[in-house]
Amino acid sequence: MKRIILIGLLCFWFIPSFSQGKVEIVADSQLYEVVKIRYERKKTADAKPDTLQVQGYRVQVFFSNDRKKAYAMKDKVIKLHPEYYNEVYVVYQSPNYKVRVGNFIKEADAKSLERLLAKSFENVFIVRDKVRYIKNRPKENEE
Predict the structure, then answer these.
(1) CATH number of the domain located at residue range(s) 51-134 in this protein
(2) Does position 90 have pLDDT exceeding 80, yes or no?
(3) Domain residue spans in the chain?
(4) What residues contact 132, with CB distance under 8 A and at least 6 apart?
(5) Which residues pair with residue 128 across a beta bridge?
(6) Whole-model pTM above 0.70?
(7) Cα-flanking dihedrals φ and ψ of residue 66, to 5°?
């Protein structure tokens, strides 16, 4: 009986010394890519804190289920009105593609663009959409 207790005590004394070791974490290489992409997106979002997505208005100039025609129409809008180069969007809402122009907070501002685009395109109308709003944008007449 004394032997069993002695062996038991010796085992408990040596076990912690054997449990010391290294931990190796094995992860898929794609995990690092996902983390890197998320980090870059967050860095980009933090660099532009004044850009918001808000409910606003855009002018729709095209609606079809043909993707190629939608992108051709986008190119045509940019060619005719290069001042809206960064504000021409192709929106896909299954199964249709829509070409929309502008980022307006007020419907009255979109109305002037609607009149301008109606001279070149058929079926032009204003739609409510999520738009990019840039806070603290410098006024055009300030210099």
Answers:
(1) 3.30.70.1070
(2) yes
(3) 51-134
(4) 51, 52, 53, 103
(5) 57
(6) no
(7) -100, 110
